[in-house]
Every structure is written in structure tokens, then in C-alpha cells.
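Quick one from the shared queue. A colleague (R.T.) flagged SRP54-type proteins GTP-binding domain-containing protein as missing a structural entry in our internal table.

Convert sequence to C-alpha cells.
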Amino acid sequence: MAAHSHVLPFLSPSPSARCSPCGRRAGLLRCAAAAGQAGFFTRLGRLIKEKAKSDVEKLFSGFSKTRENLSVVDELLTYWNLADTDRILDELEEALLVSDFGPKISFRIVDTLREEIRDGKLKSGAEIKEALKRCILELLTSKGGNPELQLGFRKPAVILIVGVNGGGKTTSLGKLAYRFKNEGVKVLMAAGDTFRAAARDQLEVWAERTGSEIVIDNDKKAKPASVLSQAVKRGKREGFDLVLCDTSGRLHTNYGLMEELVSCKKVIAKVLPGAPNEILLVLDGTTGLNMLQQAREFNDVVGVTGFILTKLDGTARGGCVVSVVDELGIPVKFIGVGEGLEDLQPFDSEAFVEAIFP
Ligand SMILES: Nc1nc2c(ncn2[C@@H]2O[C@H](COP(=O)(O)OP(=O)(O)OP(=O)(O)O)[C@@H](O)[C@H]2O)c(=O)[nH]1
Ligand SMILES: [Mg+2]
């Protein structure tokens, strides 16, 4: 019998309660045997998302460069008058382009605004700004799908993290583990980046820092798929809630390495049908719209379920969040807004729009 797989520890208001099937004490509210593990993961995804609402300040400071870039919008709209509409909308479009909203979206937004101004629906700079925010929010919510993590119905849930070199995969995995551990989740990390010894060491540091367990294969010739398979097996055997799988960076144009990811996905599914529950593609926010091609290729090969957009604190081009969602119809699930432990935020469209257009 797997070690205490019934437990939903983080839902617990009562540290002294016992799990009825196995009687162990771990601060239980209820047991998955009764409530269904589906509830466990649905709630977990939601809980993590709800936390985002309380972290608005962090998000706000993380987007300071993008906001600065877009502050010209406020200046433009303060002095807007009907006769100046064309010039101001041109400049607005330019400001959006510079912030990486991408040509298609920038044009579409400005076109919508132009129409609403022409129809007399928008009569002041303030109204135009609100309409602009509404347009962006609509783009994010209509195309992006559900930004909540979908962790399935069975323990352990498995998240596979993929992406090009240096985008922030390992760091994001560590920050994710930190978030989950704070909710009382039992996390196992899998050092699937067998390419460099330093990558294993880096993940080990994160495991220590977050109090997570880790599976490492010290054999230099170890294949990533084999490490991930071992980890998921252990996760299942020992009743872990979540297995977080790191992978090495790879260029989307490298056929052999992309195929390796397909094997990783397959071995995970072999141990746990239906897993990985999430395949999160890490995209470096500072790379600009190049990330669109990366995202397309990764999605074609492994089927991406969500994005983690990192280093948004280091770039003035936060509009790329909207571009990737619009181009690919895949939700941004997390954003990296700094190097600290708490600087990975569940993505919240409304908070994002407020952070870039306060
Ligand atoms: N400012 C900032 N830096 C970040 C963020 N996320 C990651 N980094 C930094 O980016 C660098 C690369 O991060 P890693 O997590 O090692 O990237 P990786 O994708 O695992 O790299 P490889 O495994 O070599 O492909 C590190 O210095 C991180 O601290 C972020 O959101 N903001
Ligand atoms: Mg790494």
C-alpha cells in the first residue's frame, strides 16, 4: 500500500484529525478515498490561483519596466481630443508594438478603439483607456482557456517542464515546488536534465531549499526518460502528491532532442496512464516574439498545456504574454517576475492588465 495516499493535508483546519482508511495523523480534513482525488487536485489548482490575488503587489513591481514603456499611453490619452484621434491611435499602436503585443494584436486593438470612437461610444481619454484594458482582457480570457493547473484525478500528479536553454525551467520548477510545499503538498522532483552534472546539483539545491524529495541518476549515461520513469514510479509507490520533472534545455529546431522529449512523455504515461497532467513550456520573456516559433514547435511535438513566462521583471516587453496566448490559444499558467523564491506567480489576467495599465 502506498504511503498515505489518502491524505489531503493542505485542506486541513484540524491538525489532530485522522485519516479514516489508514488512521495516520497529518492534519487531515478528509480523505481522498471518500472525497475523490479529483477534488484534491481541482482544489489545489484553484488554491494556487487564488493565492495570486493576494500577490498583486509583487506582480505590479515585476512589470515595472513594461509599465514604464506603456506610460506613454497615459500621456497620449490625457491630451486626446477627437480631431487628434488618428495620430494618437498611431502612437498608441506603436507603444503596443514596442511592448511586444505583436503586429496583429496591436492593429486589432487600435482598430476596435477607432471604431468605438467613431461610433461615439468612447468620449474621453479615460474611456479609451478602459476600452483598451477591456480589449486585452478579452483577448486573454477568450483565447487562453483555463489558466488553472489541471492536475487530473490520481496521485501523483505529474508536471513536465520543457523549454529552450536558460529560459528558467529549473528555477521555475523550484519556485513551483516552494508554492506547493507551502500548501502541504508532498513533492518529488525528478532530475531529468542528465546532460550536465551541474543541472542535477542545481535541482538538488532547490530540493533542499523547499524540503522536497528528489530522484537523481548519477550514471553519466543515464537517459532522461529513465530518470523520469524512476521518479514517477517512486512517486506512485511512496504516495507523493506531485512529481515535478525537470528536463534539459533544447532548441526547438533540434530534431533528436525534441524526439527525446516525446520519449519522456511516453515513459511517464506508461507508468501512469494520463500523465503527465501538465506539460509546461518555459518561455523567456526577454527573447521577444522569437518565442512564438519556439512555442509552436514545442507544442507540435509534445503538446503544451500551458506556458510559464519568465523574466518579465527584466523586460519592458510584457505584451508578449498576450501575443503567445493569442497566437497559440494556450493559457499562460505562471509568470516569473524575479529570481526570488516567491517570484513565480500564477497568471491572473485581470491583475496583469492592472499591472501594466494602472
Ligand atoms: N530576473 C529573473 N531571472 C530569472 C527568472 N527565472 C529564471 N531566472 C534566471 O535565469 C537563469 C537561468 O535559469 P535556469 O532555471 O537555470 O534556466 P534553465 O531553463 O533551467 O536552463 P538550462 O537547464 O540550462 O536549459 C538563472 O540565473 C535564473 O535565476 C525570472 O523570472 N526573473
Ligand atoms: Mg535547467
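Confidence is low (pLDDT under 50) at residues 1-35.
The beta strands are 157-163, 187-192, 213-215, 242-247, 278-284, 306-310, 332-336, 344-346.
Added to the table.
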